[in-house]
Specification:
alpha/beta; globular; 16 strands; 14 helices; single chain; 3-stranded antiparallel beta sheet; 7-stranded parallel beta sheet
């Protein structure tokens, strides 16, 4: 395969992937709408600037079928990254998430099913959010997949999960690809549907397809102005503006933070290796890191004196914990993450220190969620 189409190729993951593929000798075409939330008002972000001269760039929208038709011409593979992201925002911008993530993907599949094309492989960026609360061990009932946490429990400060059957405390397990899929946000539901459509139609049309369930991706180049992006960027922007950090729940909620270079390498392995065809893979670090640990490490690395407090507030739709079981991608594709969290976050902070301090828009985003009744 020589010609690769990357939707969302000017975004954080997409631009890094574009540069690496070009470096490896692939010819890359990027379809991206240069969303102002990611690329700023003038739509001339560093991310876009890093790829506009090395790839064929098409400013277009996955919601527009004609843009898909233009972008797909003479392509050998498509890596579909373009999506509305973020669990909180998805809970009140339901129509937009449905239109971009689901209907945008149907345009791709409709073209592949009904028109002439040269696509020989598809990769869809899925998400850890489709697992909902993930996988746990109960001492009485064995492996369980707990339901979404309830407002009534969290209001009493009961954030940890208990067994649905016996009400006993649960032990967190790594989530593997065979774990139950039961998303707890609109975003997660749309990613599940994207994944199912791509894999189903890949088999139907005899086009190898791969779904990559990315964990929490971070690294240099991540937007520092988008208040709906990952907590490393959000916390960094608050710290650099001298604003205190308010950690939700009890601060022990955790995520699997995976460095951008590892995500790019995993995606290229999925593209190049036939062993990936028609498979689903987790892409993560395989380690759970708490939000409190993230905040305090960032405070130390920035040498900041802001106050970090744990408020007990909570956001409906958020999960308690999640980290990936990487056994499948290691065995099938030979992938192992090369960056542990300390080295990755240090690289991220060193990059942030070279950037202009961005306006902190976090409080505005929180006010939106509070107005919708999603933060308690």
């Amino acid at each position: 395969m020589i010609n690769i189409l990357i939707t969302g190729g000017a975004g954080f993951i997409g631009s890094n992937l574009t540069r690496k593929l070009v470096e490896k000798g692939f010819k890359v075409t990027v379809l991206d709408n240069l969303s102002k939330q990611i690329h700023g008002e003038n739509q001339n972000s560093t991310l876009y600037s890093s790829i506009k001269d090395i790839a064929t760039f098409i400013k277009g929208d996955v919601c527009n079928k004609s843009d898909w038709q233009k972008a797909l011409k003479n392509q050998d593979a498509v890596i579909h990254l373009a999506a509305e992201t973020g669990t909180g925002q998805s809970m009140y911008e339901i129509s937009r998430y449905n239109e971009v993530n689901i209907l945008g993907t149907t345009h791709l599949l409709d073209i592949l099913a009904n028109e002439n094309h040269s696509i020989k492989k598809m990769i869809i960026a899925s998400s850890r959010s489709i697992y909902g609360e993930g996988k746990y061990m109960c001492k009485n009932d064995g492996v369980v997949y707990p339901k979404q946490r309830q407002d009534i429990d969290m209001a009493k400060g009961e954030f940890n999960l208990v067994c649905n059957e016996c009400n006993e405390p649960l032990e967190l397990l790594a989530t593997d690809e065979d774990s139950k899929v039961h998303p707890s946000s609109i975003y997660g539901i749309t990613k599940q549907q994207q994944e199912q459509m791509i894999l189903l139609m890949g088999k139907t049309l005899n086009i190898p397809a791969v779904a990559l369930r990315y964990q929490n991706v971070y690294g240099p180049g991540q937007s520092l102005s988008n208040p709906y992006t990952g907590i490393l960027s959000i916390f960094s922007t608050r710290l650099l503006n001298g604003n205190d950090i308010d950690i939700y729940e009890d601060g022990q909620e955790s995520r699997d933070f995976v460095f951008i270079d590892d995500v790019v390498n995993a995606t290229i392995l999925a593209l190049e290796k036939a062993e990936a065809n028609n498979q689903i893979f987790n892409v993560g670090s395989g380690v759970a890191t708490s939000v409190s640990e993230v905040a305090n490490l960032l405070k130390s690395l920035y040498n900041s004196d802001v106050k970090i407090s744990v408020s007990g507030k909570y956001r409906l739709g958020d999960i308690r914990h999640n980290y990936a079981d990487l056994s499948k991608i290691k065995n099938a594709l030979g992938f192992s993450p090369k960056f542990d969290f300390l080295s990755g976050i240090t690289s991220f902070v060193n990059w942030v220190k070279t950037q202009d301090v961005m306006e902190d828009k976090y409080e505005i985003s929180i006010q939106e969620l509070e107005n919708k009744g999603l933060i308690k």
